[in-house]
Specification:
The protein has about 120 residues and is mainly beta. It has a single domain (about 1-120), classed as Immunoglobulin-like (Sandwich). About 10% of the residues lie in helices and about 50% in strands. It has one helix at about 1-15, and strands spanning about 20, 25-30, 40-45, 55-60, 65-70, 80-85, 95-100, 110-120.
Length: about 120
């Protein structure tokens, strides 16, 4: 838990404290191939004094679709990054990434989607 807290603080320092994510990892746990696509939402809150814009969110492979808030996020307001894992690649553990690029923030934020798919 201590390591997770330190990692969170490091991430906040890299993005200048302007953007605060509710989480950077979503673990779907174990689910079956027959359960179909799995979806999760990451929330980003603008902690700065200027509007925050998500320029893009890029998935690590074609099996993960991404949608994000396209309008500027006002100070104190929140936006979302919605990721959908297609669950079509067969039974195995997975760790997919979504790289989020924010305007005026040099380092992108990498979000993880994890889980284990079992046979039907």
């Amino acid at each position: 838990m201590k390591t997770l807290a330190l990692l969170f603080l490091l991430l906040q320092s890299l993005i200048g404290g302007r953007a605060e994510f509710d989480k950077t990892v979503h673990d779907f746990g174990t689910f079956s191939e027959k359960d179909g696509p799995q979806q999760c939402v990451f929330t980003v809150t603008n902690r700065g004094s200027e509007p925050l814009t998500i320029l893009s969110a890029v998935s690590s492979c074609g099996c993960t679709g991404v949608k994000w808030t396209r309008t500027s996020i006002a100070p104190g307001e929140s936006g979302t990054i919605e990721a959908t894992y297609s669950n079509e690649d067969g039974p195995f553990p997975f760790d997919k990434t979504v790289t989020v690029y924010l305007a005026d923030i040099k380092k992108p934020v990498v979000l993880h989607l994890r889980g284990v798919v079992t046979k039907k």
